[in-house]
Amino acid sequence: xxxxxxxxxxxxxxxxxxxxxxxxxxxxxxxxxxxxxxxxxxxxxxxxxxxxxxxxxxxxxxxxxxxxxxxxxxxxxxxxxxxxxxxxxxxxxxxxxxxxxxxxxxxxxxxxxxxxxxxxxxxxxxxxxxxxxxxxxxxxxxxxxxxxxxxxxxxxxxxxxxxxxxxxxxxxxxxxxxxxxxxxxxxxxxxxxxxxxxxxxxxxxxxxxxxxxxxxxxxxxxxxxxxxxxxxxxxxxxxxxxxxxxxxxxxxxxxxxxxxxxxxxxxxxxxxxxxxxxxxxxxxxxxxxxxxxxxxxxxxxxxxxxxxxxxxxxxxxxxxxxx
Length: 323
Description:
The chain contains 12 helices and 12 strands. The protein is α+β, with helices and mostly antiparallel strands. β2 and β3 form a beta hairpin. α4 runs parallel beside α10 (263-274), α5 (165-176) packs parallel to α11 and α9 crosses α11 (283-300).
């Protein structure tokens, strides 16, 4: 599972003096009571900070991806905040005046990661989680763009890109001839390439208006609150990879560990439809193809220093051929 992957970026170390200066630049005369590093995520660093005169903690988020990523996350939060539960951005600083890395102060959102609840929940619990997760994703996908591509800090498309049949085959072919193919081995690599050629037509047949895609919509970034069966999504976190594109990328990401027809899948899809979004009759294949590119890209950027990550991604890609 992804929560067992090795982190590929070192945490950004901060001490009390540095955090105090950051806090004082935003909240005059406020003093830090305590803080701790949140061991979540694989790229950025997040600290939970308690202030003496605040009843709730705050989150200090440090952006490895640079100022454009910080700006994009803040813009998305402000765009969707009325319909999608996200953490409000209180302040963003990209000046490098206090820290040599862009940072932001966010509100703390209560809740438990969906990934943790899925480990301990029974079938009725899982159904209760899945439905609001589907409804929430439907709300995200109601935000549309005029073209496909990667988003800038003001949510403008800075690099147009659409994963159509041609680009799908170009990308998968590239990955399979590089490190991704080496990790998979000749037999799986060749079988996967045949699978891609056979099924890529589905991308050509699906013509949809580009939507806001979270791109990392999974149990690690979805917080749940409440007691079953009355639960809700309290926050969708980590929007740094969001882009304008196919809705099925998010569906494939969320369901990548699920067996076809599982209780979670059924109730998630039910919630997604109840949230007002239709699904293409060939939605499973579309989701699988979108996620396959993401998995191949992840494996292509992996190293032997992250054996758990490599083995998990390799297993997920291999399973694509047997379903």
